[in-house]
Write a structure and sequence with these properties.
Elements lengths: L2 E5 L3 H13 L3 E5 L2 H10 L4 E5 L7 H11 L5 E5 L4 H9 L4 E4 L4 H32 L8 H13 L6 E4 L6 H11 L7 E5 L8 H6 E2 L11 E2 L1 H4 L4 E5 L6 H13 L1 E3 L6 E3 L3 E6 L3 H6 L5 H7 L2 E4 L10 H16 L5 E2 L1 H8 L6 H15 L3 E2 L1 H7 L6 H9 L5 H18 L2
Parallel strand pairs: 1-2, 1-3, 3-4, 4-5, 6-13, 6-14, 7-10, 10-13, 15-16
Antiparallel strand pairs: 8-9, 11-12
Helix pairs in contact: 2-3, 13-15, 14-16
């Protein structure tokens, strides 16, 4: 429910506004002067403040200036029985949303309240979107493990060149982040990084997505469309999950890399493109080649430089740094003070099995920030982070219950015999 604080030294005005605002389903709070208002604002968050100008102890204009520091995003509507143009202008100059005379006109009051709340919601939405944009554009690679140091050194050497790069590694290990960092450090960073998720595009549309199409080239082609190769001209094209690309699209990508020219679907004109290609995959492309699902000649075109990104289980020494980074960014995103994490809790996180890699770790940290108090403890890890065991670990835990291998074998034989009797 929307919370509105009314600050006025006249009880009759507070009572009148209380009836009006509660009838409109707003949550009403009150203060009799500026000092009491500041105390309440320090203790709670309000969506809107209605405040008188002439009050004892601390008048509305002085309170307005202090509240701007404590709650800069909270809209404040000034009300006064001593209305004048100078008062109104002064209040608005100092940050008030609007100025209303006493006794307030009901319709004008409600319209002003709604407008102030609407503007505030837009400001909040803008800041939320900005935080998401900043988060999505973050290119920081966190880690001090040997594997991450090797990757960073390779990227620093390779980025300024025109060499094609193939980034391999499990899902969620940070391949896209490496590609963005390569672009940032390259000589093409003034031009776009165009990303294509080959696994997310249906095979019948991948060629149109990559190379574009001419109007009328197929049923839904109602206008000409530029492909990703053209959009990435002078920049970098990032082909994510390239192992899922169809063989026919692979052949066209190979030709584009060989000749630096493309043809749109349904077109007969060749278009020159200047594109550096970075590819990524979670698949073993050599195995895909042996299975006939990936072109060997395309592999050799892409794999000039191979960057192998390790999974989180191979870089557990980086977990404390990653956790600290995620705590800071998530708390900033939520607009709350940065939470602490105990050493025992970090140790517990390092000893978990991570199958979802960096994304899974970030989700866990976000969950802990939401559900825990100011400091995250090992007990919180045990409570909020269920440990999923691999089949091999489950089997080893099961075997460890027996005193000897012979006892385990004998027990297994008895179970098998019972199964035969049941299904006989």
């Amino acid at each position: 429910m929307i919370k509105i604080l009314v600050v006025d030294d006249e009880q009759s005005i507070r009572r009148t506004l209380k009836e009006i605002l509660e009838f409109e389903k707003y949550e009403f709070h009150e203060a009799c002067d500026g000092v009491e208002a500041i105390v309440k604002i320090k203790q709670d968050r309000f969506d809107l403040i209605l405040m008188d100008i002439k009050m004892p102890k601390l008048d509305g204009i002085d309170a307005l200036e202090r509240i701007q520091i404590l709650a800069p995003d909270t809209p404040i509507i000034m009300i006064s029985g001593h209305a004048s143009a100078d008062n109104a202008v002064d209040a608005v100059k100092k940050g008030a949303f609007d100025f209303i005379s006493k006794p307030p006109d009901l319709n004008r009051l409600l319209i002003t309240v709604r407008n102030a709340l609407d503007r505030n919601s837009l400001i909040v939405e803008k800041k939320t979107l900005q935080r998401k944009i900043n988060r999505s554009e973050s290119k920081e690679i966190v880690g001090q493990s040997d594997s991450i140091r090797d990757i960073m050194e390779t990227v620093e050497r390779v980025a300024p060149t025109e060499a094609r790069v193939l980034i391999t590694g499990p899902n969620g290990s940070g391949k896209e982040l490496i590609a963005k960092y390569l672009h940032e450090k390259s000589n093409r960073n003034d031009h776009p990084l165009i990303e294509v998720n080959c696994a997310a595009i249906p095979s019948e549309l991948i060629e149109s997505e990559l190379f574009g199409h001419e109007k009328g080239s197929f049923t839904s082609a109602i206008k000409q469309k530029l492909g990703k190769f053209e959009l990435a001209h002078k920049g970098i094209l990032f082909l994510d999950e390239i192992g899922d690309m169809s063989l026919s699209a692979q052949a066209k990508v190979l030709r584009a890399l060989q000749e630096n020219r493309i043809s749109r679907v349904g077109g007969d004109r060749e278009i020159s493109v200047d594109v550096r290609v970075i590819a990524a995959t979670n698949k073993d492309l050599k195995r895909e080649i042996s299975m006939g699902r990936f072109r060997e000649d395309l592999y050799h075109r892409l794999a000039v430089i191979i960057v192998k990104v390790p999974g989180l289980d191979q870089r557990k020494s980086d977990i404390p740094l990653l956790v600290d980074h995620f705590i800071e960014s998530i708390c900033n995103e939520y607009g709350i003070p940065k939470k602490k994490i105990d050493a025992d809790a970090l140790f517990a996180l390092q000893n978990l099995e991570w199958t979802g890699n960096i994304r899974e770790l970030r989700n866990v940290v976000e969950r802990l920030i939401i559900l825990c108090n100011e400091s995250i403890t090992a007990g919180d890890i045990a409570k909020h982070v269920p440990q999923s065991k691999s089949e091999a670990k489950v089997l080893m835990d099961y075997i460890s219950q027996f005193d000897s291998e012979e006892e385990f074998i004998e027990y297994s034989r008895s179970l098998f015999k019972k199964r035969q009797e049941i299904f006989a």
